Amino acid sequence: MIIRLFVGFFAVMLVALSTASAHAQYLAPEASLYGYRDHTGMFSHVGLGLGYAAARADLDWDAGSPDLEQSGVAYQIQFLLGGSVMPRLAVHFSYFGFDSFGTSLKANGKEVKGQDADLAFNGIGAGLTYYLPSNLYFSGSAGLALVSVTDREGYGYRLDPGFGAQAGVGYEWWLSADWGLGVALAGSFFMAKDESEAGDESWLGYAISPLFSATMN
After folding, report:
1. How far are the Cα atoms of 5, 26, 27, 177 from residue 22, in angstroms, in the given order?
2. What average pLDDT does the chain have?
3. Which pLDDT tens digit goes with each residue over 158-216?
4. Which residues pair with 196 in a beta bridge?
5. How many CA atoms lie within 13 A of 128 on its CB side?
6. Quick one: pLDDT band at residue 68, thresholds 50, 70, 90?
7. In 3D, which of 217, 203, 127 has the Cα closest to residue 168?
């Protein structure tokens, strides 16, 4: 559901950007004054991409508990909302993470046939985004990690809240006074645990992918 919402939101932003670009040719020369393509004011950014994700779980159920590893294709997302504290530097609320699917599963390094699991990581926190004069930008966010694991039968569970972060570098092209489209390379990371009567689980996971982005600033 989260991915579908972001796909829809991204499509709406593309339409808005296309409209803004069509009207950009009518901007007066005076538009080059403060406030025009200088990354000030409100900051809104959305990014979506497809890449690779992997996770490892150390199980402490009993003496013979295996170490699990999973890897596969994943969507990576980010939504940033905030404002510029100075030209080209924005402080923002951050929602980020990834959702893997069709992953392969290994126990103690050996592939488990016929078994797979989907892993979803949702991060909620805060971050900074900084633009160079060339419009190359660097972005980083950190906060709470909410992680869930679901097997092919639909059985799933949530890990205890942990720590998550996302960082990326990208470039954007201006389409109007405040709107831009871009590409980036981003990575997400989380660590979380699940403590229960059956035993403890310690998870580490990451994803890396290119992102296509749209920004208003």
Report:
1. 26, 9, 11, 12
2. 81
3. 888 999 999 999 999 999 888 999 999 999 999 998 876 666 788 899 999 999 999 99
4. 199
5. 8
6. confident
7. 127
Domain regions of the chain by residue span: 2-216
- Residue 30 in tokens: 């005076």
Could you say which DSSP state residue 159 is in? P
Distance CA 70, CA 59 (A): 14
Structure tokens at 27: 């901007």
Q: Could you say which DSSP state residue 204 is in?
A: E
Give the Å distances, CA to CA, from 184 to 13, 99, 135, 173.
17, 18, 12, 12
Class of domain 2-216: mainly beta
Nearest to 97 by CA among 113, 81, 74, 114: 74
Instruction: Lowest mean pLDDT of 24-28, 39-43, 133-137, name the range.
Output: 24-28
